[in-house]
Amino acid sequence: MALLLRTLQKSRISPSHSSRTLISWVRCKSLLPNPQSRDITTSTAKSPFQSNILRIIRNEIEYQSDYAPPHQPATEFKSFSVEDCPGEQCIVMKGKFGEDENIKMEATMFDGFMTVPRTGLDASGHDVRLHISLLVDISKVDGSEEIEFLCSVWPNRIEIQKLYKLRRNKITGQPYMGPNFGNLKYDFQTAIREFLRVRGIDSELCFFLHEYMMNKDRIELIQWLRNLNSFIAK
Q1: Rounded to the nearest 5°, which phi and psi values hold at 98?
Q2: Domains of the chain, with CATH numbers?
Q3: Integer distance in angstroms from the first to the last C-alpha of the chain?
Q4: Which of 93, 101, 99 has the alpha carbon at shortest distance from 151?
Q5: Measuring CA to CA, which residue among 9, 111, 1 is closest to residue 52?
Q6: How would you label 12-37 residue by residue, b for 16+ Cβ within 10 Å and e otherwise?
């Protein structure tokens, strides 16, 4: 979008134009020699502004498609199925642990970041680490009870923020969410992390989610540009 605005500035197109000027309709009537057999033809002419913005969008689509073309999203990771949600900012992963547990995970696209100093003798400046929110739902197969983990997924680790238990057959307006996970005793935190690790929620999942979301971000951007192009072209 920043590229789009910069290009508009270079073209000296004022952003104060009303969006209604994007499409200009010109109706032309052609009269045949015989007035009783008159034919009316309607054509659509694009304004200079509309033509220019369509050219910019199509150039951006071509650039994004050629520079880092997205690949077909994965449909599984280890024992988990992966369900993409096209047009939405999340994916759903499902799996099982043993015979009596179902695991469901909902992961967002990148929703935050942090900066960290670069390391090494010649390093200077900072690196950016992107953040993914992850909700892990582990339930018994009979559907009676479940526990949920609210997590932060960084490129190399998972941080548990909250851990709480729910009962599906009991309606509560505001369930107790438990203390902040980081305030719990170290031994307790270690045991819970191991509980998740043996169920496949580990550093390998972190890497997978970040790679997946990088690709999904490109897919969604290109589709968004195509939808915008289609709307303005009408």
Answers
A1: 70, -150
A2: 76-115+129-224 (3.10.280.10)
A3: 21
A4: 93
A5: 9
A6: eeeeeeeeeebbeeeeeeeeeeeeee
Count of beta carbons in the 10 Å neighbourhood of residue 216: 23
For residue 117, the SS3 value is: strand
Phi-psi region of 83 (alpha: psi -120 to 50; beta: other; left: phi over 0): beta
Euclidean distance between CA atoms 152 and 150, whole angstroms: 7
CA-closest candidate to residue 111, choices 133, 91, 96 = 133
**Distance in angstroms (rounded) separating the CA atoms of residues 63 and 68:** 8
Q: What is the pLDDT of residues 180-194, one digit of tens each?
A: 999 999 999 999 999
What integer is the mean pLDDT of 99-111?
Answer: 96
Q: Are 223 and 70 in contact (CB under 8 A)?
A: no
Is 0.70 topped by the overall pTM? yes
Summarize pLDDT for 47-99 with one digit per residue, the tens: 888 999 999 999 999 999 998 899 999 999 999 999 999 999 999 999 999 99
Residue 83 contacts by C-beta under 8 Å, 6 or more apart in sequence? 91, 92, 93, 94
How far is the CA of 150 from the CAs of 138, 147, 168, 197, in angstroms?
A: 12, 10, 18, 15
CA–CA separation, 197 vs 133, rounded Å? Answer: 17
